[in-house]
Amino acid sequence: MGTRQYSKLVAIFVFGSILTSGSLAQNEQWLQYRSAVEARQIVMDIGYQYLQPSSAKPAGVELPAFTSDQPLFLEWKTSMAASGTIWLAFDKSKPNGQYDRLYLDANANGDLSDDPALQPYRRDSVQIYFGPAKVVFDSADGPITYHLSIELRVFPQQTHCLLTPACWYEGQITVGGVKKQCLLIDHNVNGAFNDKSLVFTESDRIRIGEPSGPEAGAVGNYIEVDNKLYRIEVARDGACVTLAEAPDVPYGTVRVADSLTTVMVSGENGSYVRTPEKGAIKLPVGAYWVDAWSIVRTEAGAKWELKGAFSPGTSANAVTVAKDEEARLVCDEPIYSVLQVRKTGSTHEFSQRLEGGKGERITLTRNGSQPPPPKLRIRSRDGTYDRALSFEYG
Fold first, then answer.
1. Average model confidence (pLDDT) for the chain?
2. Is 114 in the same domain as 222?
């Protein structure tokens, strides 16, 4: 348990005789901090930052004595540090070896010379893995612990670094008088856990319910639990959440195609999965982007599902919901089969994909599995060449 979490719990214990258990349930509900080397394999919905290190030394930062004459530096932007930045430096234990040492400004003081070198826990010919690397941020409530996973990828043409959280929060909270499991993820990898955004990939993630339930949605102003809307506040460091019923939130209507089975949207109000009724869905007033949609049909005893997903950061299907007004979303069939041909010398390379009318990535399944890939038939004008070729997934 981190220092901030411990100090808060002590304060609650000391003043417990003043506060009633009911008022506690309506206010801050505490979660447990977790960290692991391979957090992505445990939590699954962890995001990442893909950054390029530089050989340029950072100005105003004290540096250790490097073994390599070409150390690499990386700037991690985090709102949790007073300066807004945590610096990392990659060094070598042997002048001509791999970058197998990592210096991390673990106390966020702008000084790399007072931090010990970290060793990789795994490596191969081009990838070096460090972590979980501990960073401690200062706050008014005491020190806050955060863990990072750092993966350095060194290729002849370019070097990249993959940063992912090696930590998350989870625990039981009470919602509507019922105990629920809560999971909180710093999805955008900036050290904070309460980021809201119109763009789904720039929001943090929260799930209230069992792991077998829906995927984590975007942290927002509200969250739906058991078909009831709650106002939610997430602590910046992720240590606690506060929920309150929101019966007074105004709603608006969004008109969609009659064929749609589900619509998934997100924004600063959080994430919502809707099943349209008579070609309409209702959402709390606010701005949203459509993340995905689906159409399910049964034909000849087989269940076919068509899913459309928009690329992160695209506003192709933005919608603003106003009180007692009707907006419209355009996402539906037809679906286009796109064939691309690339010629290199005497070789032709073919690729095929399904695409929606607004550039959505389309997947098609039959009874939950992908149907056989399409075939390409090539026939010469005189008929001397006539062959059917099969595409392959992946």
1. 88
2. yes
